[in-house]
């Protein structure tokens, strides 16, 4: 299955959202061979417990390693928040999560040093973003937004209902922020689905608030780490030259749905998806 | 674990919604011992494929049978729609799903013989309700409503946003119904979560439209079948006397969340929930 001479990067998510991370990785590391696994039979992770998410994520990471991955990107915020240590313990290759890279980009952007993190319930409950932000000297408000993923998967990314749901969530976050004495100037999208609502969020937020997602910063970090590991010859890393990247897609539930919905997240058609069984 | 002399009824759902069916069963068969399993680690089933749902549902049914269940109620519309035959093949006790009982109650209620079924995407895709309605001489429109479960689980059962989502779904259904030449006078709630939106649905629909859910009709059918099986002595079946029923609760994910959210669906506090592992 693998192509000789290419660095093999495993990208894992509970479903489709991690494809926004793969989308950012493709032009950064065009010489790589990518193995993307969406654990669609057991999604969403965002409403589940730490123990269950860790079990699912470790199984998925091990599968990607068995496919020959030299490097693992945990492109799922919930799995990064709840299971990164468990995955690192189980894996024999470098593992990167999206929480730390997201917090790093917020630290570079924020002037007030106050950040609003929008994420799933499980990610918020873990307070992984709050810890990662604090390590950069940032204060944060974490706001769970459980309706956003279903609205995005319904395709209602430009509906009045979605605007209203966002308005309610942002108002609740603003109230909480004020009560805590924070003045956020940066909103960190702590779920890989949320970049599809960037337009509506831009409308709903004041102009001087910066909106960040982890996809771009994660892709840059992967590239930097791979270069420092000397796994990439210099002449292989040509940003913009995405044509030579090879992608393999795997899902644990309907491959048809993966192709249809996944293509929206990846921003290009997905042709072949292989159904795999993780025993769940 | 079982209590001698009591009929043991296994009730299965992907999560919490089936507790509305258990709620209807308790006063109908107060002498029974109930084993309720919510496969919360793998919910929702409503967005997944037939093969995956069948695999999950069969594992769950087998577990309930291993606990000594004499009778199985598949209180999950999606599992009833996609996996009833698979469960019946795998089980050694009588199995009842909620689709057939729902269609039966619609047949008793409808004068126009046209019915609107609201359900999850997977249930609609299976057309199990359309077939069950047709067997009763009813025509039906099946409308998928993927946002309703997340809205209910968010607790937004009386929010303007939920009213607006219902308005959009009902308008789409009305358009489809008219195009097909149907005039529905009955709305069948084809998902066990939806009874929690009965109030909003009542407001949104014309007065002469009847709203039905499967919980009550399923409970009556279970009681009638058990009586015909002579599993219940006459003096054991006293409607209204719910105090003697014994309930055991099992979940595959967080038992705390099951207690909190489940109590809303059951309409009474759930004290003890046992965490079980279905290997998923």
List the helices and strands and how they pair.
The structure is a homodimer of 280-residue chains.
Chain A: E1 8-13, H1 19-28, E2 33-38, H2 50-66, E3 71-74, H3 77-90, E4 95-97, H4 98-109, E5 114-119, H5 121-126, H6 128-135, E6 139-144, H7 148-153, H8 160-179, E7 186-190, H9 198-204, E8 210-213, H10 214-228, E9 246-251, H11 255-266, E10 273-275
Parallel strand pairs in A: 1-2, 1-3, 2-9, 3-4, 5-6, 5-7, 7-8, 9-10
How would you describe this protein?
- The structure is a homodimer of 280-residue chains.
- The first copy, chain A, is an alpha/beta fold.
- The first copy, chain A, folds into two domains: 8-97 and 216-275, Rossmann fold (3-Layer(aba) Sandwich), CATH 3.40.50; 100-214, Rossmann fold, CATH 3.40.50.
- Chain A is 45% helix and 18% strand.
- Chain A has helices at 19-28, 50-66, 77-90, 98-109, 121-126, 128-135, 148-153, 160-179, 198-204, 214-228, 255-266, and strands at residues 8-13, 33-38, 71-74, 95-97, 114-119, 139-144, 186-190, 210-213, 246-251, 273-275.
- In chain A, the strands form two sheets. Chain A has a six-stranded parallel β-sheet with strand order 4-3-1-2-9-10, sandwiched between helices. A four-stranded parallel β-sheet of chain A has the order 6-5-7-8, sandwiched between helices.
- In chain A, strand 9 (246-251), helix 11 (255-266) and strand 10 form a beta-alpha-beta unit.
- In chain A, helix 2 crosses helix 3 (77-90).
- The longest helix of chain A has 20 residues, at 160-179.
- Chain A is globular and about 55 Å long.
- Chains A and B meet through helix 7 and helix 8 of A and helix 7 and helix 8 of B.
């Amino acid at each position: 299955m693998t192509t000789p001479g290419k660095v093999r990067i495993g990208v894992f998510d509970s479903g489709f959202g991690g494809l926004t991370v793969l989308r950012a990785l493709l032009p950064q590391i065009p010489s790589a061979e990518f193995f993307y696994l969406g654990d669609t039979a057991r999604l969403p992770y965002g409403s589940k417990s730490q123990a269950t998410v860790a079990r699912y994520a470790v199984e998925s990471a091990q599968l990607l390693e068995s496919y020959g991955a030299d490097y693992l990107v945990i492109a799922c915020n919930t799995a990064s928040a709840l299971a990164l240590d468990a995955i690192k313990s189980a894996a024999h290759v470098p593992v990167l999560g999206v929480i730390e890279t997201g917090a790093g980009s917020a630290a570079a952007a924020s002037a007030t040093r106050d950040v609003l993190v929008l994420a799933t319930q499980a990610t918020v409950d873990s307070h992984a973003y709050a810890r990662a932000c604090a390590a950069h000297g940032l204060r944060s408000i974490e706001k769970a937004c459980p309706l956003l993923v279903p609205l995005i998967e319904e395709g209602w990314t430009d509906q009045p209902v979605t605007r209203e749901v966002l308005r309610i969530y942002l108002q609740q976050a603003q109230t909480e922020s004020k009560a805590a004495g924070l003045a956020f100037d940066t909103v960190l999208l702590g779920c890989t689905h949320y970049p599809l609502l960037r337009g509506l969020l831009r409308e709903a937020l004041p102009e001087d608030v910066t909106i960040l997602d982890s996809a771009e910063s994660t892709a840059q970090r992967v590239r930097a780490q791979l270069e420092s590991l000397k796994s990439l010859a210099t002449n292989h890393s040509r940003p913009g030259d995405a044509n030579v990247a090879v992608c393999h897609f795997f899902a644990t539930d309907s491959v048809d749905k993966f192709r249809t919905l996944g293509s929206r997240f990846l921003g290009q058609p997905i042709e072949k998806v292989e159904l795999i069984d993780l025993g769940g």
